[in-house]
Amino acid sequence: MDGEGFPSGRPALVEAEDLWLTVPARPSGVNPKGDPHGGQGAGGGLDILSGVSLRVGEGEAVGIVGPSGSGKTSLLMLLAGLERPTRGRVRIAGTVLGELDENALARFRRRTTGIVFQSFQLIPTMTALENVLVPLELAGRADGAAAATAALAAVGLDRRLGHLPTELSGGEQQRVALARAFVTRPRLLLADEPTGNLDTRTGESVMTLMFSLQQQYGTTLVLITHDPALAARCDRRLHVRDGRVTTDHPLRQDGP
Ligand SMILES: Nc1ncnc2c1ncn2[C@@H]1O[C@H](COP(=O)(O)OP(=O)(O)OP(=O)(O)O)[C@@H](O)[C@H]1O
Fold first, then answer.
1. Which Pfam families does the protein's record reference (predicted)?
2. What is the largest CA-CA distance in the chain?
């Protein structure tokens, strides 16, 4: 795969090769997502992902779209190294995640990857500043307070440092989550429906901020979204259906 060209001509930061994710067909307990749509894998397992390969260039923004239950979040979890594939390989910035033990994987993730969720996932007992400090403290950074304050200023929240998540609006909470994700300047940002809990206008302004920071820092972005307008702001769009990538549209190259 090395040296292979991209539509964008950029070297690959994310390389996923033939990813399979198979879970027991009858997991214990209730499946919160209802009936799974995947196919039956070998040995009666259920294939959530069936041979997904993708490459994302350094600094590129890729939108992942597809129906509910098609495997988008599962794919993101594999790229984050939060879940391991049943088969296949994820390589981020030249590091094969499957070759790392849990501790090394956690260190790698802290250094390389930022994640933004639909439900913000802020720690409710911590202020905005304390939430943004968490990844810096885990990384052993001595300049934590100054860096966290600057990151919150970059998302327009320098007057909300001491507020708890419950004292912030949804849009403000997602901006804190963006500050927390960007504060370590990760090379890769993974975002799972980041506007899903926001009204249209708030979502748009938070996404404008996200794309602006992504471009300013040259961050590679993989963004799951149901919103076609948001997907259209990405350089490329991958369509996931029944655990497979079905189409890969280069958007900007095609023009409007
Ligand atoms: N650990 C698991 N055990 C059993 N089934 C699972 C597991 N993880 C995911 N699934 C199933 O895999 C399928 C894909 O889930 P996933 O969350 O990746 O879909 P999605 O495309 O992100 O959906 P949505 O857009 O609704 O968030 C779903 O049917 C889900 O129920």
1. ABC_tran (PF00005)
2. 56
Give the C-alpha separation, 22 to 16, whole Å.
16
Cα–Cα distance, 226 to 224 (Å, whole number): 7
The C-alpha angle with vertex 185 and arms to 225 and 155, in degrees rounded to 5, equals: 65
> Is the pLDDT confidence value at 136 over 70?
yes
Q: What are the residue ranges spanned by the domains of the chain? A: 58-84+100-254
Nearest CA to 85 out of 71, 112, 77 is that of 77
* Best mutation site among 19, 48, 195 for ligand 1 pocket (most ligand atoms within 8 Å of CB): 48
Which two tokens mark 127?
Answer: 């202020």
Alpha carbon distance 21, 30 (integer Å): 19
Pocket test for ligand 1, best of 73, 117, 246 (most atoms within 8 A of CB): 73
Please say whether the dihedral angle defined by the alpha carbons of residues 121, 127, 132 and 133, taken in this order, is positive or negative.
negative
pLDDT in tens, 169-194: 999 999 999 999 999 999 999 999 99
Residue 127: which residues within 8 A CB-CB, separation 6 or more?
161, 162, 163, 164
In whole angstroms, give the CA distance from residue 23 to residue 193: 23
What CA–CA distance (Å, rounded) separates 86 from 73?
A: 16
CATH of domain 58-84+100-254: 3.40.50.300
- pTM flag (> 0.80): yes
Spatial distance between the Cα atoms of 25 and 45, rounded to a whole number of angstroms: 5
Quick one: average pLDDT of 35-61?
A: 80
| Whether the Cβ atoms of residue 38 and residue 48 lie closer than 8 Å to each other | yes
